[in-house]
Specification:
The chain is built from 11 helices and 2 strands. The chain has about 190 residues and is mainly α. The radius of gyration is 19 Å and the shape is elongated.
Length: about 190
């Protein structure tokens, strides 16, 4: 069931007081589908807070979970602990079916300064899931493409500059023209 903000705050207060004794219960909540996703999310974050980086091997298993919320919570923990060993998993999640998961994977790779992931980040620009409409004549981008352009700029992926220059002049990218131009200027 959905929790109101007061209930969520009470749960957070209780979770902050937890210690290692609560680890088995948190793991049970994370693994069990009988709990709502919101509770499983909080259990994931609490486990990470209690165990620290030691929780990463277990939490990383949820990167492949059927629930987008569990994949997202795992990504948040990876970003929180700045775990660079997860780059391959993060690259895979750039093409997840959930837009929120794709956006978080992109944010994590950018925050981790993973320049080795630049080709995967660039491929996001051409993933049809990142567009509201995608046809030969017209492309209506979702908000994630602005984030892709910011990542390209932040990671200084200069090798895509010539392609961005061509795209800036194409009619089908007209809705992104100013953002593409800003990215070109920063590169």
């Amino acid at each position: 069931e959905k929790l109101d903000s007061k209930s969520r705050d009470k749960i957070k207060d209780v979770l902050l007081k937890l210690d290692n004794k609560s680890v088995p219960t948190l793991i049970e909540i994370m693994k069990s589908a009988k709990y709502p996703d919101q509770s499983r999310w909080m259990a994931t974050m609490s486990l990470a807070r209690i165990m620290g980086k030691k929780s990463l091997p277990f939490i990383k298993k949820f990167l492949h979970h059927p629930s987008w919320m569990m994949r997202l919570s795992s990504l948040k923990v990876i970003r929180m602990f700045k775990d660079q060993s997860s780059s391959k998993e993060l690259e895979t999640l750039l093409f997840d079916k959930s837009l929120l998961v794709r956006a978080e994977a992109l944010e994590a790779l950018t925050a981790l300064n993973m320049k080795t992931s630049s080709s995967k980040i660039w491929k996001m620009f051409f993933d049809k899931k990142n567009y509201i409409k995608f046809s030969k004549d017209e492309m209506i981008p979702s908000d994630i493409l602005s984030k892709v352009l910011k990542s390209i700029s932040s990671l200084e992926i200069r090798e895509v500059k010539p392609m961005l220059e061509k795209m800036a002049n194409q009619k089908r990218f007209k809705s992104l023209k100013s953002e593409i131009q800003k990215t070109i200027n920063k590169l």
